[in-house]
Structure formats: C-alpha cells, structure tokens
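Field reference: sequence -> structure
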Amino acid sequence: MSFLKLLPLTAAVASAQGSADDKIKTSTPPHLFMLLVDDLGYNNVPWTNPEQKAETLKSLALEEGVLLTRLYGYMYCSPSRAALMSGRFPIHVYEESNTFVNGVGGGVDLRMTMLPAKLKSKHNYRTSAFGKWHLGSFSDANLPINRGYDYHLGFLGGSEDHFHQTGSDHGTTYVDLWENHGPAHGKNGTNSCYLYGRKAVELVRSHNTTDPMFMYLAFQNCHEPYQALPEYEDPNVPKIRRAMYGMLSCVGDVTHNMTVALKEKNMWDNTLMLWSSDNGGPQYWQANNYPLRGGKITFFEGGMRLVAFATGGLLHPSLKGQSLSNALHLADIYTTFCVLSGQTQEECQDPIDVGAHEVPVPNTDGIDFSRLLVEAEGVNATRQTPIILSKGAWIDGDYKYIQWNATPHRYCGENKSCGYWTTPEWPTSAAHRVLPGDEDHACPADGCVFNVAEDKEERHDLSGKDPKRQQAMKARLAEFVEGAYHNKYSGGYTDCENPLQFIESHGDFIGPCCTRGNQSLPPF
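Structure field:
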C-alpha cells in the first residue's frame, strides 16, 4: 500500500517510464491489434458469467491470454476512444457529449497525432480501422483516412441500427457508413458484426507480411439498439438478456477468426492483441457489471473499469492463463504500442507548439507497459503515476477518489441515480429493480475514498476513517481540473453545410459537413 504520491504529473510519468532510450527490441516491428467492444458489461463475458456462451473467446482469454483486471477508460464511449487514439487522459482531450464530438471543433484536436500516424512515423505500418469512429466528423480532416489510417470502413457517429447502418435526426433517416474518403454506397444492409468482422479478417489474409500491421477493430456490438443475429440468440437465456449475449457471441467468433487468420499467415508469433470494452456497461438497459458498483455514465468502477485481456505470440509465456492487477488506462496503450513499434519513449510523446497566444495543448499522459506484457516485468506492481479518470474522479495507487452526489438520471428511473449494485443475473425484468440496500448512495460533500485494489465493489467509503487522504485527494483533483483541456480547434473548417442538406445531396448518407471556405471535399 502506498500513501499519496503527490508528485508533479510530468515528473511522476518520467519516473515510471524510465529513460528515453529504454525501449523493447524485437527483430522486426510487431503486428499490433486493438479490438474494442462497445458498452460491454463487466459480467457479460464467458469467463465470469456461465450464461454467456462464447467458448473460443473464453479460451483465448484464459488459456492464450492474460486478463487485465484494472484497465480503465472513461464512463462513456467517445472520451475513452479519444484517450486510446491520442495517448491522453480524457480530461486532456475532451469529456464532452456526443453533440460536441460531431460539432465544429469537436472530437480529437486535429493537431494531435493519432496512434496510427505515430506508428507510421517510424516504420511502414499498414494501418486500418473498422467499425465505430466517434472521434470527430465535422470535416474531412477528422476522417480516419486523414488521421493515419490507410483503410477505413465504419460509421462516424455513436450508434445506429446494426442491420441497416441507419440513424435519424429531426425526423430524417440517414445512412452512416463510410469507406475511406466517402460514403460506402451499396455496402450497408449487413449486420455490423459481420460487415466489419469479415472485411477485417479479409484484410489480414491479404496482408503483405513484410510490413508490420496495426488494426483497430471497434465493434458496434454490444451498444444499443440490442439486435443480435438470430443464429446467436440462445433460447435458454431469458429474453431480457438474450440479445446482449448473442451480440457478444458474434464478437467472439470474429475474434476467433482473426486469430486463425493471423496464425495461418504466420503473423501470430509476432503479434500483440489487446481486447477490451470501451466503458462500463449500461446496467440500466441490458448490461451487467456485477459485482461492481454502477455502470456507464457513473464514476464508479462499474462505469470505468474495463473488461480486458491481452494475447498474441509476443505475450510472455508465464503470463498466459494469469490475471494482472496493474492499474492501467486506455491512454497507456498509445505509448505501449508506440514503444513496441521501435520508438523511444521520448519519440512516443506528442508535444504541440501552439504559439504564445493560444491555449496550450497537453502532451501525452500514457505510460509504457510493454515490458509488463512482453517480459513479465513489474507484474502486479503498484502504479507510481496518477490516473485521472475524469473531472470527478482519479486514482492514486490503490486508492480512488470520487465526487458523486447521486443526482437522479432519466436512464435509471424516476428519482433514482445510477451508482447502484446489480445481481449476478441482470437484468431480471424490464423494470431493472434494484434490491434494497443496493441503491445508490451519495458521497459526502468532500468526496468518497475507496481502496479499489481490495474493495473493487466500492462498498466501504474510507473518507470518514482517513479524512487526511480525502482532503489531499480532493485538492489534487482540483489541480487536475484546473489543467483540463477543452478542444475547440476547428482547423479553419468553419464553412458548414446544414446536415439535413448534406444528407439530401449525398444520397441519404451523413458525413463531414464543414470545409475551409471554397475548398471542396474529396470526390465521392
């Protein structure tokens, strides 16, 4: 147990990362894969929940992989993805809503170097992205194809119909499906799990193995609307939970097919694959985060502790079949993948010179945990740098501080807030009834403190027993909040077409509506 290490953030990161010349050396740059599952609950995986049938996924995680039991993200989709792709905690990219993400100046700052571009800066990585983007789409400069990806097939927004790739806005139905520079005409109408999974596996099979590969497969599953392919629906599972489980079963098959393709191409031995949820599951709908408290849209572990594992031929043999309790964050993956690509930790930073009269843009926050996975160095060690989860929560070693007033939320029922506990089998009815004693309880005015290494369910608030720690962590959070960054950089893309007009003029497809004056978008 470590007491508060209130080091300046930059110094703390440097001490954890080591020297700038300290890097993993491999004979050839490894193939790197990031598979992200949308809105998956902590207890919606087959290694914790016997109702979930995805045996190949279970085998991959428990026999060929290592569970990452304390990987953190944000409490909902887009800021988690922003952390992964920028190497910064959400507080240093954005924590705003979906409306902000797709609006002018929204999403990941155009001046930040995204992960695929960083990997390509040193070696000839072939990069691809599939599925959900949700990292900005107001201009063509925000598109994945212009942020470092060689190939992209997916949707730009936050959610849509799984079978038709459609959404609606102000009564207007549109298609959100893009391939590289333009609408993916003729490719919508297939279940998203099949659509992205098949194309991703196809790309692996056709890959020139002399080049290293980076693939980001961001599944639309298991985000609402809950729509599973009929062949994946288990009639033995209660109907209220059947679609969620069916959606993950499809993810399991795609993951399995991916590993088979990598092994057939003789790429697996030089591959590291990370598989994770993006945030906690929405327990107020069909997700289950048992035994964690809360879920999506809360600062509790159920909202920010991810379900994750690492696998691949690069994983140290001693780690296979094990669990790691190291505290990690999605932002760390940026730095880790960068170091694995052969770059120094200094090269893996992303300093941005904006000039004396502009708002400073934060550098990267992520630490490198490549040696943990590849060399089994530092197994279950206490992290020496803070994890800033949000403007309302942060982690120091084993301890987590939360500001939470249990404000009622429309998703969680009339006069109810969302930081409650669930049961092993959840939901049990459409009413999502919370058992007596498991209701959400507000934190004291000065915040809660939990030892989440020992009390991951967050049932024992330590603020009353340790007010000194509470006050110190509260003060430190205030410092973090003062340094928060809210991206408003438009890059000059301010000549915007009305989205409804854009849909009408682009064959019912939605897309980036803003240009730089008279500069036209690339031809579709």
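Note: The first strand starts at residue 31 and ends at 37.
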